[in-house]
Specification:
With 447 residues, this protein is of the alpha+beta class. It is built from 17 helices and ten strands. The chain has helices at 13-29, 53-63, 89-102, 110-118, 142-154, 167-181, 185-198, 209-217, 271-280, 290-293, 308-316, 318-321, 360-363, 385-388, 390-401, 428-431, 436-443, and strands spanning 38-39, 50-51, 224-228, 264-268, 327-333, 349-355, 370-375, 404-408, 413-417, 419-425. Helix 1 (13-29) packs antiparallel against helix 2. This is Transposase-associated domain-containing protein.
């Protein structure tokens, strides 16, 4: 994509032509809302406000393009096209193929997404029997059956004669709209039934909400439910998983002994598969090495990799720093109320991990934040937050000490992926509840 026009005078013909071509490409390939608006990249709006095409044109002519916005990812540019290739020829060919798929539009590369989910490398054709690259990453057993079924669903038309979208493509996009737009389960069910009634006979959409979740769950990244003491004393986890009452306060594990409904549930989102997905996914694998291969080293603090803490961490852990693909993480948590009514003081505490290997314009974006734990309310865990952190601490220790064999789709090879926690991010009230020395000792980190 030609970007030279941004350096011309804003009243020149070159600037006008370049801007119009940019808008043509952006509204055709970028994210556009239902009201035909997209983020404005001018210096005043800085990709925060959504505006119409004419409004964006006027703003950019008046103010100019945001100088720091050099990768136009909000407006249809692929991230991978901005990185020089440092891999072998085979990986370059794979990258080129991925780039071609990106240009086809949302939902068209559903097969690539399924391959990413199972860590299966791209090949020149769709004949899965011919795969001979990255063989150790090819699923087997039940995973293989799920993988091949998803591939079959990705080629199944939405209804007889539909050549624009498969059933899987439609379902993935519809579910994404549900999550992004805050659609309730009831609304989703009613919309699903309306679509099934409206589409021609032979529609392949699942019949109900439960079947939709079952189909999408096969893409992976599920979560675990861990029962907790209602007084935040302990988790019913590992060696205490079969107990019926708290070993500290003797409170019952269940609300009612007859129904055996847990009094409190911690939702744990396993970390390993989410870290592996960053490299198994062809969209992000190359970006994960940005901090080492592309970052400008001129003494200016633009990214956590420019900080003294990052450099000191590398000095103290040279074996970890030797492979730039090892992931540096930040941990953050804060309360939020899941209910809109202020009369209900219920609070929930999400624990989020930030992968700092990504470029600065990506590492702090919501889609790249990794939800690890969802600590239940109705009140703050306070000083007992370390009780709920135990599953995450176990994962971080294992990722630091042993790592996990992972397929790097950008280099078409397997490697041992490790992860380290650099720091935590909290406001001052939240910081008061961290047992910092205890947590650092458990994690075996230095800092």
């Amino acid at each position: 994509m030609d970007k030279s026009w941004v350096h011309h005078d804003r009243l020149s013909k070159e600037f006008d032509v370049g801007l119009r071509l940019f808008l043509d490409h952006a509204f055709e390939n970028g994210f556009v809302t239902e009201s035909i608006r997209m983020k404005c990249p001018c210096k005043e709006c800085t990709n925060i406000y959504y505006k119409t095409r004419d409004e964006i044109y006027d703003d950019v002519v008046s103010c100019g393009m945001t100088k720091s916005y050099t990768v136009w990812y909000h407006h249809g540019e692929s991230f991978r096209s901005t990185f020089p290739s440092t891999s072998n020829v085979g990986a370059e060919n794979a990258n080129a193929e991925v780039g071609d798929n990106d240009s086809e539009g949302l939902g068209d590369d559903i097969t690539g997404m399924i391959r990413d989910a199972y860590g299966v490398p791209m090949c020149e054709d769709d004949d899965m029997g011919d795969i001979n690259v990255g063989a150790s990453s090819i699923p087997s057993g039940n995973s293989a059956a799920q993988f091949y079924k998803l591939l079959e669903d990705s080629k199944k038309p939405l209804y007889p004669g539909c050549d624009k979208m498969s059933m899987m493509s439609f379902l993935v996009r519809f579910w994404n709209y549900k999550c992004v737009g805050g659609m309730t389960d009831k609304s989703f069910k009613e919309m699903l039934q309306l679509m099934r009634d409206s589409f021609p006979e032979g529609c392949t959409l699942p019949e109900n909400f439960t079947q939709c979740k079952k189909v999408l769950s096969e893409l992976g990244l599920s979560y675990n439910k861990i029962d907790a003491c209602p007084n935040d004393c302990m988790l019913y986890y590992k060696e205490t998983a079969d107990l019926k009452s708290c070993t500290v306060c003797k409170a019952s594990r269940y609300k009612d002994g007859k129904t055996k409904t847990p009094a409190k549930i911690l939702r744990h989102f396993p970390l390993k598969p989410r870290l592996q997905r960053l490299y198994m996914c062809s969209k992000t694998a190359a970006n994960m090495r940005w901090h080492h291969e592309v970052r400008t080293r001129d003494g200016v603090l633009r990214h956590p990799a420019d900080s003294e803490a990052w450099k000191k961490f590398d000095e103290m852990n040279p074996t970890f720093a030797a492979d730039s693909r090892n992931i540096r993480l930040g941990l953050s948590t804060d309360r939020f109320s899941p209910y809109s009514s202020m009369r209900n003081p219920h609070s929930t505490w999400p624990v989020v991990l930030l992968p700092y290997n990504l470029p600065p314009w990506l590492c702090m974006k919501q889609p790249n934040m990794i939800l690890s734990l969802l600590i239940p309310g109705p009140h703050s865990p306070g000083n007992d937050i370390d009780v709920y952190l135990r599953p995450l601490i176990d994962e971080l220790k294992e990722s630091w000490e042993e790592g996990e064999d992972t397929f790097d789709s950008s280099r078409n090879e397997m490697f041992n992926l490790r992860a380290g926690l650099l720091w935590t991010i909290s406001d001052y009230p939240g910081l008061a509840n961290w047992h910092v020395q205890r947590v650092l000792k458990i994690l075996g980190t230095n800092g």
